[in-house]
Design a protein that fits this description.
Strand content: 5-15%
Largest sheet: 5 strands, antiparallel
Strand order of the largest sheet: 2-3-4-1-5
Distance between the termini: 30 Å
Helix content: 55-70%
Structural class: alpha+beta
Radius of gyration: 31 Å
Length: 767
Amino acid sequence: MSTLLYRVGKTAYRKPGYFILGWILILGIVISMISMNGIHISSEMKIEGTESQKILDQLATELPAASGGQGSVVFKAPENERLDTPERLAAITKGVNEVYGINEVINPADYAAEASSSTTEATQAASMDQSAAATAPLSYGPLMADGVPVPGVILSADGSIALFQFQFTIEQSAISQDIFDSVIDTVKNVEKDTNITVLPGETLKSVSIGVGSAEIVGLVIAAIVLLVTLGSVVAAGLPLITALLGVGIGVGGAFSISKFIEMPSVTSVLALMIGLAVGIDYALFIVNRQRRMIIDQGLSAQEAAARAIGTSGSAVFFAGLTVIIALCGMLVIGLTFLSTMALVAAATVLINVFVALTLLPALLGLVGERICSPKARKKNKDHHTTGNRGIADGWVKFVIKYRWVTIVAIVVVLGVAATPIAKMEMGIPGAASANLDTVARQSYDAISEGFGEGFNGPLILVAEPKNSSTPVTPELLGNLVKELQAQKNVALVTPLGMTKDLAIFSLIPETGPSDITTKNLVNDLRATESSIAQSNDVKLGVTGFTAVNIDMSAKLADVFPIYVGIIILLSLIILLLVFRSIIVPIKATIGFLLSILATFGITTAVFQWGWLHSLFGFDTGGPLLSFMPIIVTGILYGLAMDYQVFLVSSMRESYVHGHEGSESVVHGYNQVSRVVVGAAIIMISVFAGFIFTDDVMIKQIGFTLAVGILIDAFIIRMGLVPAVMSIFGNKAWALPKWLDRILPNLDVEGEKLIATLNAKDKSNSMK
């Protein structure tokens, strides 16, 4: 591997034009595909195999009108005023009718018009036309205009808040921005000359990519760290250029095919996060290695670049492979949206690895000897000659001297940080935890104030006779409405439609979507032994946003241990091959488990309990994103192994070159600690930039990744690793003879390559 990469690096350095033009051509193809196909993103996250998804799929087939997306709008009167004045009633009625006039919105009047042509349609229309007042408590009722209910609108008891709920003819994920804008513009007209406040609900919020100016700050910090670490504007610029190109091709490539595959909105942001981080870091390690060889060994820039690709390039390759394996481990979970995220992120990492191994040496070829100025060579060479390693040397020797105290202190601190995990709640952050100044949150609060928090998360119920030959009748429909309404924690039941095979209802709980009582209600309704199911001889299915949320959290919680086991097993095999050691992979895994537990504990305290919420730009705590643990675990495991590979491979290289015991730990640590710290700060900066986006899901992922890297790099790799390695000494590299014989020698440190090149240099000097 090292020899092959050495040749690639040397060729790219000598003939940079071919490699540079090749990558520019690839970028051009991606841009062309985007211009032809456009960018298509979705907010839909299907959880295949769950009860709620089965019901949605069934409705899409048997009752398509009931499977469309839902929308809601809140009308709010000024303080101490009512909405049911003649002028305001006229404005609201006009706005509602205009919304029903939009082609993609279901108009209840259409069902009534078709009633005469079909008995089934007539029954369905009658069901859908039933007023909410039929089963609603006296605290709210239909909004009346000239003695006739305004379809789809209910009014709070004090008359100050009205809720307009309607349904689209197409699935939520297929609704375009133009349709959302049309609905919002229509209802916003109600505000004119009425002093009514119109608050579109969260489901009318368009899907966005979720990237803003805050990420630029992270890149600026990364540029500063690169400049400080490498000491040269030219050298610092190369990692940024290669990372941006790699991310452009990776994320752009995903966008270019988004017309043909469903692309969740968070996918591109995830790929952007990890692509920037690893792209900058991988290039940093190679450029730093080249500069060290120029300064320490007096090599030419060309030879140093080729050797850097052959040595550090090998470490980059296997570090990237570990990240890719950790990401691809998500495929075994069997969830389409997670698989898409994993594959796009993994492809972006792979592209960045290839960019670092081919484009970077080509760019180094253009820079030539300017990669390291004469002043930098003299300054760093003098520093190297004196043996003064400064803070890094003092720190690692301190850690080794007090290694047992260090280990115990780290375990205790991280253990305490992990304790909030016991109270961690998973879900989909929504309007309830949005910032107070957002329209979605104001709409949520207004609905809660006027009608109860449950109206923010209606459940969709489907009832089917257990005996397939028994049809659904109006009598059965009435009995189900009556018994459902009598259930504990049920505020309102409204029939939405029926066919001969099933009946569909909207059920409003008294409690909010994320309340544990709502979850219990869903489970009770689904129970086959429930009194409603038995007395009516039916099967009840539950879906809707709240039910989907519950099912998603449960499914992901079940598969999480399996996923962790798979990535740990695969990564242990890779680390065994890379380091030819049993102790090192085990130590790396234990260290990672400590860091990930502490990371999730801190994230729970901040985003669920609300600690330091104002510092991170949010107002209200809420559940943690249900699929975040799987995504973050995969990414952090891969990135943690990056640092493991770079740091420990340096220690192994020192051991191979004659340093014994703790001396190899100190020497190896001093060789790469500065660049590992710089790389970690860069990653933290990139991830932290996403904390200050408006999307709470992206905010949580960015925060968790930033904290995870902070803990893993500065506590585990910079503290626990040298302490543990010094305890084992040379035994850390022990390998049973039978295993040593069957394992291939990957030569990640480039030992064979350097030996061959040194022998060649010696032979040439003797001629």
